[in-house]
Design a protein that fits this description.
Oligomer: single chain
Largest sheet: none
Distance between the termini: 36 Å
Radius of gyration: 18 Å
CATH class of the largest domain: Mainly Alpha
Helix content: over 70%
Number of domains: 2
Length: 186
């Protein structure tokens, strides 16, 4: 995602303010003052602070999970980059993900789900009906592990998280045949 200098300043200001305040308490005025940008300029680019937050999530961390660049070969490296970016600004994420109206949840589940879907289609191409459940189950689990990691100050090593994610996916892939033989998800 290419961003203008103005948008970059706004995102940086949001990240800075978000290090010390929860998102629900941050105002557009605080962001624009920190960015040294007129309030009208903010509204030229964004209708509200949630739109800016969406761009901040993408520009700071979720850019590594871009659908055009994410593959089964590079997902682990890309996920490592996402986690590094989050760790660098973990207080911002800690102060935003629970007060953003579900934005973080929707964005991460969508992006994680994309690669999970690719994986499921590679190994189980005929499980379209079950794929949605599997996708939501795995991506939701990974997202919750990430949220817990953020909530604990990103203390666990990134390599350990990546190993956990790989194991979570492998374990789930192992039980899919048993699930599909006993349960039908519509």
């Amino acid at each position: 995602m290419q961003v203008s200098d103005t948008v970059s300043k706004l995102i940086s200001a949001l990240l800075e303010v978000g290090e010390t305040k929860t998102f629900d308490r941050i105002t557009v005025k605080e962001i624009t003052e920190r960015a040294d940008i007129h309030r009208k300029t903010f509204y030229y680019y964004y209708s509200d602070k949630y739109e800016l937050l969406r761009d901040a999530y993408v520009v700071n961390a979720l850019k590594y999970w871009d659908r055009d660049q994410l593959t089964l070969v590079n997902w682990e490296r890309q996920t490592g980059e996402v986690l590094k970016a989050i760790k660098e600004h973990y207080r911002f994420y800690e102060n935003s993900i629970h007060w953003d109206g579900g934005l973080w949840h929707r964005m991460t589940v969508d992006r994680i789900g994309y690669v999970i879907n690719k994986t499921l289609n590679q190994f189980e191409p005929d499980t379209k009906g079950d794929a949605r459940f599997s996708n939501l189950f795995i991506s939701g689990g990974i997202m919750e592990v990430m949220n817990t990691w953020i909530g604990h100050g990103c203390q666990t090593e990134i390599s350990i998280l990546l190993s956990s994610f790989k194991q979570m996916i492998a374990d789930f892939m192992d039980i899919i045949p048993r699930l599909t033989n006993t349960i039908r998800f519509e």
